[in-house]
Amino acid sequence: MSLRSVVLAAATFAAYAVDAHIIMQSPVPFSADKVDSAPLPGKAAWPCKKDLGYTVTKMNPMAVGEQQKVSFKGTAVHGGGSCQLSVTTDTEPTENSVWKVIQSVEGGCPGTDGTTVDLPFTLPDSIPNGKATFAWTWFAKLSGGPEMYMNCAPIEVTGGASDTSKFEALPDMLVANLPGVTDCKQESSTVLKIPNPGDVLTGSAISDAKPPTGSCGASGSSPQPSGGAGAPASSAAGGSPSAAPSSAGGNDGMYTPPAGAGATSAAATSAAAVPTSPAGGAASSAPAVSSAAATGGAGGVFAPGASSAAPAASTQTTLVTVTGTPSTPSKTTAAASKPTATAPAAGTGASGAAPTSAPAAGGSSGTCTTDGAVVCNGPTQFGLCNNGSVVWQAVAAGTTCSNGTIQKRGYRGRIVRRNGLVGHVHKH
User: Is 390 exposed, middle or buried (CB count within 10 Å of its CB: 0-12, 13-18, 19+)?
Assistant: First the structure.
């Protein structure tokens, strides 16, 4: 091969690598002309790929209580995965910076079908006024190995807190898949279950989400429910605190949160809420489960400042409303904001079908030619081409793989918000 051919091939690969993964496009990151889509390589770049510098390309103003969004550039979403949105009050973060989580996503982030979807969020009033740093972190489901992606942006907060007392009570950001910083890591080809997702958890909430493994340090335990220390929200219903029931509308990772989706506010009841039948729809039987892992589960290493001690006890609730038949948007909204039944008293138990497991990830593999492309293995299996190889995964129920696309008859999604807010499941 001639020198010219080698140079051209290297240039082509470099151009592909820039778009091979995903980068945060908005808010505008630090050193926007240098930011790349590669995962964090290790301690030298932690956090924020600090080796690229903290040049403020554009200051991003953010008002507390107003909806913001994270938008992305790139196409290789690697089967989606789990993301977190976090803030530190440091304007040039270091390895000692304390990152506080404002929103977490389990499954479908930043997309699952080869395209990205904007991620809406709102800054809580616990964020202090003034300049700070915003971070988007991503743990991909399908990749060459456990990886952690991180892009950071300068922000200026208005309408927020005058001190840091409430800010310090927020959960700490999960740090995993980062050699030299932690040996805590994600299990290969799985959606990472975030041990302490915070008050706002969105995404597909699929049943095969798994916690990180290894010497993961702090447990990242969530605030305790009022029913007693260590009692997960699902204990009254007898459900597993880390499993999302497939009968409650989980779609095994094929759901991408629609733009503008958010948790709906409504009156929440006790920790074991019973699904009802709003808007005349037939309700599916499903136990209510906690939207965060139980405190005794495997945890993760969190950014400095994390503590294994739980915050002061507070009521932790999850109300899941399941609509089994199609309904108009107005009926769905009404059902989410005004449930037709309340939960039984804690400890009485909730009846319903037991959760069933999601389709298991395929263990076989094959070869492919176009990195980042969806590859079909018959109508029942798919995979993403990664460096010439592909690991087959079962398609979700109700979908088929054909000509490099996943064809869906519809989607089911679940958005969960805790501490008095409502999650909902709907079907189109």
Answer: buried
Q: pTM of the prediction?
A: 0.53
- Domains of the chain and CATH, by start: 19-192 (2.70.50.70), 216-359+419-428 (no CATH), 361-408 (no CATH)
- pLDDT at position 364 is 57
Give backbone dihedrals phi and psi of 125, rounded to 5 degrees, phi first.
-75, 0
| pLDDT, tens digit (0-9, with 9 covering 90-100), for 188-198 | 889 999 888 99
Q: What percent of the chain has pLDDT over 90?
A: 33
Closest CA to 334 of 228, 242, 424: 424
Decide: residue 54, CB within 10 A, 0-12 exposed, 13-18 middle, 19+ buried.
middle
In tens, the pLDDT along 24-81 reads 999 999 999 999 999 999 899 999 999 999 999 999 999 999 999 999 998 878 888 9
CB-based contact 261:121 (threshold 8 Å): no
* CA nearest neighbour of 320 among 205, 192, 171, 194: 205
Distance CA 102, CA 167 (A): 10
Share of the chain above pLDDT 70, in %: 55
Please answer whether residues 120 and 262 qualify as being in contact, where contact means their C-beta atoms are separated by less than 8 angstroms.
yes
C-alpha dihedral, 233 to 309 to 88 to 293, nearest 10°: -30
Residue 293 has pLDDT above 60, yes or no: no
Any bridge partners for residue 84, and if so which?
A: 104, 137
Return d(Cα 79, Cα 36) in angstroms, integer.
20
Q: Which two tokens stand for residue 267?
A: 């009156």
Tell me how far apart the 2 most distant CA atoms of the chain are, in Å. Answer: 76
CA-wise closest residue to 149 among 161, 160, 159, 135: 135
